[in-house]
Amino acid sequence: MTQLYITAASAYGPLGKSLDEIWQAIMDRKTTGSMLHVASGRQYLAATTHSGHTTNTQSYAKSFAKGLRGLVLDLDFDTPVDVIFVGTAVGNLCEAEHEVYVGCELKAELLDFANLRPMLEGCPAIGPDTEIVVVPTGCCAGLQAAGLAKAVMARMGYRTGIVASLDMGLTPLAFEAFAKINATANREGHVEGAPISQPFCKDRSGFLFADGGGAIAVSIDTPLSGAVPRLTGYGCVSSAYHMTDIETDGIPIAQSILLALADADCTPDRISHVNLHASGTQQNDTAEHNALHATLDGALPPITAFKGNHGHALAGANMLEIAMTWKMMITGMVPPTPKGLAVDAFDDVIARTEPTKLAPGAILKTASGFAGIHATLVLEK
Amino acid sequence: MQTFFCLHESDGLRTGLLNENGRHREETLTAREIGKFVPRREQRKIPQAAIMAGVLFEHFELNNMIRDLGGNPEQIPLVVCNRFANWDHVADAMAPSPVITARGIDSYVATAWFPAAVQGYLTIRYSNTAQAITLSTKSNPIVATMVDHLRSDALGGMAVLASFEYVPKRIGQSLVTGDVPQLYGAVSLITAQDSVAAIEIALSQHRAIAAGAIHRTPELV
């Protein structure tokens, strides 16, 4: 069984520019999100890292490059890693789309999801021999990037690596595309003062579109000191159901959980915490709830769902949430649920008003995304 | 291993097989023939690359071949290489004005633009519930190793390796410049007998087809 040791983590999101800032905001039960005025002249609910991002695309154009670079620098490598895996849904869309709006020629490199090396030039973690591979599969891409790392690193002789995921997708094109399929949270029915992103709440109306991401430093070698969080299991299936809809029976999610548990050689009774995808759509939350009951024995363990704090940054959300999960494992604490979030959709998923201790055991991390991909990680310490 | 390709030509889609000697069994499919494989009402909802994927699978009856080779089309791992997403679906809707662009966005953009559109199209159309992944990379060894990893648990030791790209010449009013792939697709059926090195060669062949570097086998044309 291959396992990856997670030696460091970084994060960037609407609640902070670093992992520690975001962690503190989440421990303080903060939420974010507001009505954004976009360059298309339309307004959408969103949570953003970028205070200047309202009516022009210029100020947002370099966000993906800056964000990715920041995530990698924050991992504090002083020598190059062997490989970097990056999950993303929309890649460098912000820059390419901006070029269209200013009427410039579009260089093919700008459209190329694999062209990340120029963005990372000068980062100590990136050397001339560092391989870069991008998983552009949407809202599951971060977990798929981690699964890819777990599958290939040891076999290819890579000892150190980075798994990152990032999306800075708050562009006129993306806003409108998601609005057209009614995937995103809207004003209708939204209670003033309540958090906009409402996973596992009866009133959830769709996901709160956000930007941000996270990264982890991974190694196949056993660290010299202390117990280090490890990625021990990975499972992934295709639902073969719909590009964007999820079957509410949760069967494909359950299958990905069972595959991940088998890969980790972990029994369901050892799961002491679950960090869910919890996008805040009716379909997703019902499917995940059913999948947990189908796979875990007895009462559900404590659950975290960080999209309730800062929305859904597409693939970027995956590693942002894994970075927070890593922080839970390092500190031994589980954050409370966001202030004002009802968490009333299911009787056995309840809100926590205070931080609690993380129980010993293994953690499940789930994600579901575009093209009917469902993936699960098992993390242990 | 068997590799099938598809190239866009002015009068239709050029399809054929590929082996170490080059391209053979080539045929150009007209719009009417393409419509038999991917109905026209569906074509307007999906990107050109997905249409090509459907054409390749149907024209060459790839699922029958997978069964004949000992695999299960509903449980076969799928690795798709795509680096440039599917801008063709929004190219005409986009304009220098974001206001005009937003007006032109249809409800299929959220499913058609993404690089994983071909992956989703193939898994959904053929009820394939195996693990599938789309990769954007210049590293053939990483892709080949992932294919090898995925097929290890699959029936018949089989996997599907595909490459699809299409970048329109113009997006909105912006001309796309530089090293841009033409519309092409390639699908290789990987069997238990194929080495990782052979999978890497298949990937190189996919890219060579796109670059026009592999030509017809004269005696077979």
From TrEMBL, chain A:
GO terms for cellular component: cytosol. The keyword Nuclease does not apply. The keyword Translocase does not apply. Gene3D superfamilies: 3.40.47.10. One of its GO terms (biological process) is fatty acid biosynthetic process. Keywords: Transferase. InterPro entries: Beta-ketoacyl_synthase, Ketoacyl_synth_C, PKS_Beta-ketoAc_synthase_dom, Thiolase-like. Residues 1-381 form the Ketosynthase family 3 (KS3) domain. GO terms for molecular function: 3-oxoacyl-[acyl-carrier-protein] synthase activity. Transmembrane segments: none annotated. This is Ketosynthase family 3 (KS3) domain-containing protein. It comes from marine sediment metagenome.
TrEMBL record, chain B:
This is Uncharacterized protein.
